[in-house]
Amino acid sequence: MATSTDYKFKSDRSKKMLLWVSMVSMVMVFAALTSAYVVSSSRGDWKPIDLPSSFFISTALMLVSSITFFLVKRQVVAGKRGGASLFLGLTFALGCAFVFFQFQGFQQLYRDGLFPAGNYATINVSFLWVLVLTHLAHLTGGMISLLVIIYNHFKQKYGPGQTLGIELGALFWHFLDFLWLYLFLFLYFFK
């Protein structure tokens, strides 16, 4: 007969597996989009563009947020609730700042006359918008999961032996960071 420990182990494992399957499907979406970007680069209306400077800032913010999220679990495992609260707040603030600078990048594209649709649009600018907005849509999920983690943290649902929610949230957050870094480098080097 299965014990409650066996059930918890299987439940935790299935939650992790579900997250991994979801992340693999997201990788496939972005692989398809970047492949279409590469194939479309041979079109006659393809014009190389430089990434907005605010995308560089947002990339740095996202990398720092990965560090702060890593520190959250370390603080929880050490039983330091105050430190965990601080790093959770920093991670959320850095995520918000990332989104802010992404939209600053969109404004810079507009100011430079690079539109995603319409008479003056080019295919590569349209792809840039699709890639960035698709990532932002996934980041919205990451921000929501971070808010749930913050809520659960203040309800004292995490502790040295109970970190599954933080582990899952951190795994997804690090995945989103890696995904953005991939997109940033792809867009920077493949013009």
How would you characterize the overall build of this protein?
This protein has a single domain (52-189), classed as Up-down Bundle (Four Helix Bundle (Hemerythrin (Met), subunit A)), CATH 1.20.120.80. It is built from five helices and no strands. It has helices spanning 4-40, 53-77, 81-111, 123-154, 164-189. Helix 1 (4-40) runs antiparallel to helix 4, helix 1 (4-40) runs parallel beside helix 5 (164-189) and helix 4 (123-154) packs antiparallel against helix 5 (164-189). The protein starts with a helix and ends with a helix. The mean pLDDT is 92.
User: Which H/E pattern describes the elements?
Assistant: HHHHH
What form results from the Cα inertia axes? elongated
What's the total helix number? 5
**Beta-strand percentage?**
under 5%
Largest sheet: none
* Second-tier CATH architecture: Up-down Bundle
> On the 0-100 scale, what is the average pLDDT?
92
| Separation of the first and last Cα atoms | 60 Å
DSSP helix fraction: over 70%
Number of strands: 0
What fold name stands as the CATH topology? Four Helix Bundle (Hemerythrin (Met), subunit A)
Structural class: mainly alpha
Show unreliable segments.
Answer: none
Q: What is the CATH H-level superfamily?
A: Cytochrome c oxidase, subunit III, four-helix bundle
The CATH class is identified as Mainly Alpha
User: What is the gyration radius calculated from CA atoms?
Assistant: 19 Å
- The domain tally reads 1
